[in-house]
Each structure stands twice: as structure tokens, then as C-alpha cells.
Amino acid sequence: MRLRTCLLALAGAALTAGCATWFDPAPRTQRATVVEYLYPKGEQPTLNPSLPELHLPLRVGIAFVPGERAADLPETERDRLLHRVKNAFANRPYISAIEVIPTAYLRTRGGFDNLEQAARMFNVDVVTLLSYDQVQFSDSNRLSVFYWTLIGGYIFNGSQYDVSTLVDASVFDVKSHSLLFRAPGTSQIKGSSPLVKFGEASREARSEGYRQAIDALIPQLDAQLQDFKTRIKDGKVARVVERPGYSGGGATDPAMLAFLGLGALGILVRRRRAG
Fold first, then answer.
1. Is residue 123 within 8 Å of 88, Cβ to Cβ?
2. How far apart are CA 107 and CA 59, in angstroms?
3. What is the DSSP letter of 173?
4. Below-50 pLDDT ranges, the chain
5. Taking every pair of C-alpha atoms in the chain, what is the biggest distance, in angstroms?
6. 149 to each of 20, 155, 196, how far by Cα in Å?
7. What distance in Å separates the CA atoms of residue 70 and residue 30, rounded to the nearest whole number?
8. What distance in Å separates the CA atoms of residue 106 and residue 65, rounded to the nearest whole number?
9. pLDDT tens digits for 167-219?
């Protein structure tokens, strides 16, 4: 009886050790880069592009760079992520509109010609391109467990996953092809799941990786925007032109004007009474 128990235990250990061969996927990569999209023929970026002329308030487009495998990041998820960025910057007085450009309007390796077409279609002058690089590593060795029951042994396979994500925002003036500024956002998600649910869990981890990377990107993008506004004052990075009717975002609030008017009237009345 003891020999039988030992043999069963050894068999279970062998099965447990061997189950790593049942599920040992290679790293999964999702990638779309600005360089491959804008310079599809290996062209070199212009080192001294013409000085961009920014017309305030700005009309801005935002889009994901099209990758080789668009299904890696579904369009519905792209739209939600783009609206996260849009909502974070929509209330800026020097931005009149932010248009979300669906990936369908951008061609893989389309270059600046394609970017200009999309910009004209959505009536924007500046486009923020989001590129991404995501890698998922999986390991099934640590979660394969052998359970002994009254009717025999069972192996419950599982897997651990590690998802690293980078999302990079590059802001271009379309007409001059100038890169105005850029900002990155990163995330890393670790988790585990039974093998039967691994596909669903890892997909959710990849989606959550993008969401966390976007959340990390937004404050970085805002900081770079503030720095760009400071550099504009030096007149070396861009020339600013105000559109007709634009007050520079600094117009005095009507309520404040009324308050100041009442204050001035009160001072005048007091002076007359004192005289």
C-alpha cells in the first residue's frame, strides 16, 4: 500500500513537472511607432523644419498610430483611451476643439501625406499621435498544481503574466511637419490566473495596461505643454497668431467687470461726499 502511494505521488510529480510543456507561450508583442508611420521609406526627419505658425485657439486632432495588427488594440478601446486624453485637455482656453480621429482614417505607413489628409478632413492644425509598445510575458511553471482526490489525481494548470506597456504622445504641427513636444506614459501589471481563464485574464491585463499608461501619460503631457508655452515666449519654437475674435484666453469675466465697475462707482461717490 505504501509503495502504491509513493508511485502515485511520483507520477503526480512527473505530471506536474511536465504540464509546463502544455502551455508555454512566447512573449506577446503589440507595437505601433510614429517613425514607421511618418517615415515609411526610411526617410530621415528634417533637422531644421520651418518655424511652425500656431493659430490660436488651436484645433487639435488626436489619434492612435495605425499598427500592423489593428486587432491587437480594438477600435472601441482606442476610442475610450483617446477620449480620456481629450477630456483632460478640453477646457484649455487656447484650444477651441479636440477631434478624435479614428484609426480607420490613417493608413499603415501612410506618412505625412496621410496625416495631412486626415487633418484636412477633421479641420485640425495640430495632431497628437499616440504610439504604443506592449509586451506580455507568461510563465506556467509556478501555478501547475497536482491535487489528489478519492477518485484519482487532477492537475490544475495556471499561468502568471507580466504586461509592460509604453504609450507615447507626439504632438505635431501638420503644416510644417514639426514635432512640438512629446510625453511618455508607462505601466506594468503582474497577475495570475487558472489556465482555463488565462486568455480572458491576460486580455483584461493588456487593456488595463493601456489604461494605466494613459493615466500616467496625461500629467506628463500637461507638464510638457506648460514647458512648450514657456519656450514659445522666446520665439524660437513657434510663432503664435491669434485668430479673429480670439482674446488670448485672458478676457475678463463679465461678473468681474461688474464688480470692478461697482467698486469704482463707490469710490467716486465717497470722493464726492468728502468734497
1. no
2. 22
3. E
4. 3, 6-24, 141-147, 154-156, 250-272, 274
5. 118
6. 22, 11, 20
7. 9
8. 8
9. 999 999 999 999 999 999 999 988 766 655 666 777 788 899 999 999 999 99
CA atoms of 143 and 24, how far apart (whole Å): 12
Rounded distance between C-alpha atoms, residue 32 and residue 166, angstroms? 11
List the one residue out of 142, 178, 176 whose CA is nearest residue 161: 142
Q: CB neighbours (10 Å) of residue 107?
A: 16
Instruction: Give 248's DSSP letter.
Output: T
Residue 77 exposed, middle or buried by CB count within 10 Å (0-12, 13-18, 19+)? middle
Report the alpha-carbon distance of residue 204 to residue 212 in Å, rounded: 12
Return the axis-axis angle of helices 75-89 and 198-232, rounded to nearest 10°.
30
Rounded distance between C-alpha atoms, residue 119 and residue 96, angstroms: 15
Question: Who contacts 75 (Cβ-Cβ below 8 Å, separation ≥6)?
Answer: 102, 103, 104
What is the chain's alpha carbon radius of gyration, rounded to the nearest angstrom?
29
Distance CA 97, CA 124 (A): 8
State the first-to-last Cα distance of the chain, in angstroms, to the nearest integer: 118
Question: Nearest CA to 168 among 31, 68, 4?
Answer: 31
d(CA 249, CA 251): 6
- Counted residue by residue, the chain has a size of 275
